[in-house]
């Protein structure tokens, strides 16, 4: 069971990932709807991920990468500190 | 609900990730026990991940990176095709 501190660390991490995802999508000039059409995620879930609501799974990272047309490692290419 | 094909794709992806994780750990000359001591995962879970048993979450990817002393993007730096 995750402790309170672990939950806080995870949610900060999810928000940071969401910010990076949002920046990548904007750089590609894709709307949520356009990105959703390029992968198997719907636009409301992509929006929730951008707002740090989920501790997403590897399979979702791979789908997000497909939607953006980038290699999955790009989704983790930011400062984690 | 994931379809049968999505489940097959996810499990192949998890096995591939596990192989990459195993190679990274070997390159660092770390045993499962030594790696477990450097992060908040236990050695049996790391072993299961290496055998593709889980569709792991972002927080686990970050812990694995801590255990290996690498940036999280390294965990996804392999050929996904």
Automatic annotation (TrEMBL), chains A, B:
Highest classification ranks of the organism: Bacteria, Pseudomonadati, Bacteroidota, Chitinophagia, Chitinophagales
UniProt name for this protein: XRE family transcriptional regulator
All residue ranges annotated as the HTH cro/C1-type domain in the record: 21-75
PROSITE patterns according to UniProt: HTH_CROC1
TM helices/strands, residue ranges: none
CDD domains listed in its UniProt record: HTH_XRE
The entry's keywords: DNA-binding
Species name: Paraflavitalea soli
Molecular function terms, GO-annotated: DNA binding; DNA-binding transcription factor activity
GO cellular component terms attached to this protein's record: cytosol
Source superkingdom: Bacteria
């Amino acid at each position: 069971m995750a402790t309170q501190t672990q939950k806080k660390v995870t949610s900060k991490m999810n928000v940071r990932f969401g910010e990076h995802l949002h920046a990548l999508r904007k750089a590609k000039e894709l709307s949520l709807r356009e990105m959703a059409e390029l992968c198997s995620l719907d636009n409301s879930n992509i929006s929730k991920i951008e707002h740090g609501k989920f501790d997403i799974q590897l399979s979702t990272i791979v789908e997000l990468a497909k939607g953006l047309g980038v290699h999955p490692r790009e989704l983790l290419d930011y400062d984690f500190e």
